[in-house]
Amino acid sequence: MRVLELWIAKRNERRLKAIGAKEFGRAHYRWMVIMHTFFLLSFLFESLYKGGHLSPWWPFFFGVFLIVQWLRIWSIVSLGPFWNTKILILPNAHVVVKGPYRFLRHPNYLVVVLEFLLIPLLFQAYITAVVFSVLNACVLFVRISTEEKALAAMTDYESRFQNRSRFFPFLPVK
After folding, report:
1. Which positions, given as ranges, span the membrane (predicted)?
2. How many domains, the chain?
3. CA 99, 70, 29: angle at the middle one, nearest 5?
4. What CATH number corresponds to the domain at position 83?
């Protein structure tokens, strides 16, 4: 699935840049890729070190994981040509407010947060779950603020999303 996502992102990046999209957050993007790579390696090594046994709770974790993957696909499909792993902003574009974006600002980042918990928990890799959830929170803090500033400066983001929560639908927005 990740290989397909990277292919879609690269295709969308070429198309967006060809029509004038600007890239933001290059400095942190490299660190995000490194963190994701080390997350997968850490999960692999920790789970194999512990024998690769599934959690006794694996049916629950796997069920939630499948729902999370459905949310990822819904997010990608909803953004269509605007979905990317990089922050690419098309000046004066209208932000997407369909699909899960009707309910929250960053459903795809919510997916990543949940994956950083669920994947290690499926195989009892608790250290990976904790360490990389903290690292991911730090990276997302930088990334989301960079993305929201760029969107606010170049699109109708503030007016379209002022009443939507970042991650949790149905919670009041300040």
Report:
1. 28-45, 57-77, 109-142
2. 1
3. 80
4. 1.20.120.1630
Q: Does the residue 166 lie in any domain?
A: no
pLDDT at 101: 94
CB atoms within 10 A of CB 131: 17
pTM, entire model: 0.90
Is residue 105 situated within a structural domain?
yes
9 within some domain: yes
Structure tokens of 3?
Answer: 């290989």
Does the residue 12 lie in any domain? yes
From CA 3, how far away is CA 118, in angstroms rounded? 20
Closest by CA position to 136, among listed 116, 111, 107, 122: 116
Gap between the Cα atoms of 152 and 110, Å rounded: 20
DSSP label of 164 = S
Strands 87-89 and 22-24, bridge-based pairing: antiparallel
Task: Give the C-alpha distances (Å, rounded to integers) separating 6 from 2, 16, 19.
Answer: 6, 15, 20
Residue type, 90: L
56-98, pLDDT tens digit by residue?
A: 999 999 999 999 999 999 999 999 999 999 999 999 999 999 9
Parent domain of 115? 2-161
